[in-house]
Amino acid sequence: MEFLKNLIEYYDELYPVSKGQKDFFNNLFTSYKMPTRFLGIGCGTGSFEHDLALLGHDVTGTDTSAEMLESANRRRRMPNTAIRFFLMSTVEMTRFLGSSFYNCIACLNSKIILIHDQTLLRKFFFDCKSLLSENGTLVLQLGNFTLLEDTNTFTLPVQKSIRASLHSTLEETEDEKYLLTQTIDRGDNRFLPILDKAPIQPITPDIINTYAKEAGFSTITYYNGWTQEPFTGEDANIVCLLS
Asked: Residues 158-189: pLDDT tens digits?
């Protein structure tokens, strides 16, 4: 079960939009004419999407959580900004969004691992390629799951803010599938549930390379974060650019 309503109050603290992230996308967007047409998949509360819209870009955000999108829409108070949010899964993208329209598509904060079905994951890469304009870019940000210990249960790094911390545990089942459990500790010894054994797919560079090439992406570049330093394979985080 999902209890994402427990996460909304702390979402922007636990998934902050860093200066490095802003600089990364500002630099990327210089390759396109203004306004850059941006699609954020798994946008959450829409903080980053609103930052981009305020800079004059044309922004679309999607998420599968109605509660998250309610929070995102409450931010829409600035006039003359091109931004909209849709309750939508990755399976539905090509049905409702414009083909060859977006200059940049981004799926950040390891949201891609929630596409736990191999067929749907492969479809995700094909659909992103279909939605991208000529010379468009897909940006993925996720943890480095090649570092997972060879055990049936492992704990991912804790994400912390001043008020709360997000704890994540992966459990491997007998049929070699993975379940993610997440809780929030507010510092009062009361853990609030976020995800309870939600199926996920720990995605590695090898998986990305295979599905991206099948979908027609010709250039795949890995960094260890928004600073664009080369990915060594031992880094905790991955930023991947596909075009």
From this structure: 899 999 999 999 988 888 789 999 999 988 87
- C-alpha dihedral over 9, 11, 14, 17, to 10 degrees? -130
Which residues fall within 8 angstroms of residue 54, CB to CB, at 6 or more apart? 78, 81
pLDDT tens digit sequence for 128-160: 999 999 999 999 999 998 887 665 667 788 899
Beta strands in 100-224 (DSSP E): 102-107, 132-143, 153-155, 159-160, 165-172, 178-185, 191-200, 220-223
CA distance 10 to 29: 29
Q: What is the spatial distance between Cα 223 and Cα 241, in angstroms, rounded to a whole number?
A: 8
145 touches 174 (CB < 8 A): no
What mean pLDDT, rounded, does the chain reach?
93
Please list the alpha-helical segments (H only) found in 138-179.
none
Tokens of 232: 């060594």
Going by their DSSP bridges, the two strands 58-63 and 83-87 should be labelled as parallel
- The model's confidence at residue 65, banded by pLDDT at 50, 70 and 90, is very high
Going from the C-alpha of 206 to that of each of 15, 120, 236, the distances in angstroms are 26, 17, 16
pTM (global) more than 0.70: yes
Q: Which two tokens stand for residue 76?
A: 């829409």
Q: How far apart are CA 147 and CA 200, in angstroms?
A: 16
Alpha helices in 55-171 (DSSP H): 66-74, 93-96, 118-131
